[in-house]
Amino acid sequence: MPAFATYPSLAGRAVLVTGGASGIGAAIVRAFAAQGSKVGFIDFNKEASEGLVAELGGDVYAEICDLRDIEAARVAIGALTARTGAPTVLVNNAARDDRHRWQDVTPEYWDDRMALNLRHQFFCAQAVAPGMIEAGGGSIINMGSTSWWEGMGGMAAYTAAKAAVHGLTRSLARDLGPHRIRANTVIPGWVMTERQKELWVTPEAIEKHKARQCLPDLIEPVYLARMVLFLASDDSAMCTANNYMVEAGSI
After folding, report:
1. What does the domain layout of the chain look like in residue ranges?
2. Which of 82, 122, 135, 189 has its CA 20 to 30 A from that of 128?
3. What CATH number matches the domain at 8-246, 3.30.930.10, 3.90.850.10, 3.40.50.1000, 3.40.50.720?
4. Exposed, middle or buried by CB within 10 Å (0-12, 13-18, 19+), for 214?
5. Are the C-beta atoms of residues 152 and 104 closer than 8 Å to each other?
6. Where on the phi/psi map is residue 144: left (φ > 0), alpha (ψ -120 to 50), or beta?
7. Does the annotation count 158 as an active-site position?
8. Taking the complete model, does pTM exceed 0.90, yes or no?
9. Residues 140-181 pLDDT 10s
């Protein structure tokens, strides 16, 4: 593996990650733990969450919560804050890219996808912003998606939610910027998580996708985590309201 950067400003920093038990989220949690940060994460998968905490030890803590329940999310954030201190880094990672035919989408399904992929990003930011203001600054990192940039079909509710993340990021950057709180969007390409491998990765799909990329290698979760670390660190102190793509040049 390459030798990645160490950010002194992240040592001891309190970090909150949503959807941190698996996939990209787990890579982000591991990356912050390796920097010496105090990491709290929220996930609905109890077994995976406990396994990651046991693996990493130290200042890594989990709360089990369905982020569609905003009050439960607020309680979980409070419990993690009691253990790590008020987060000055928030990584809004939790989402599910379930496929769906446009003919089958009901109002109830649409609302559920918005709750699962968009709404909690705002309310988690709302919950941690006062602590960031008191601390004199912070970094909010929202996870977007290349799906809507590429004009993908078969997931209209998901792509709509992910497109809206960019508007949310820019509004948060404007509203919170006077407090030295930065907000940015990280945009993954097709990342080889276990979920992707189980559901959608085939030799044919891989070859077709690699033909779109400028780079020949597939994207592993660790590369998303490294971009998140940069945006969380003081090295990116003047970076806000922007998109940071990790998609190997596929767009």
Report:
1. 8-246
2. 189
3. 3.40.50.720
4. exposed
5. no
6. beta
7. yes
8. yes
9. 999 999 988 888 899 999 999 999 999 999 999 999 999 999
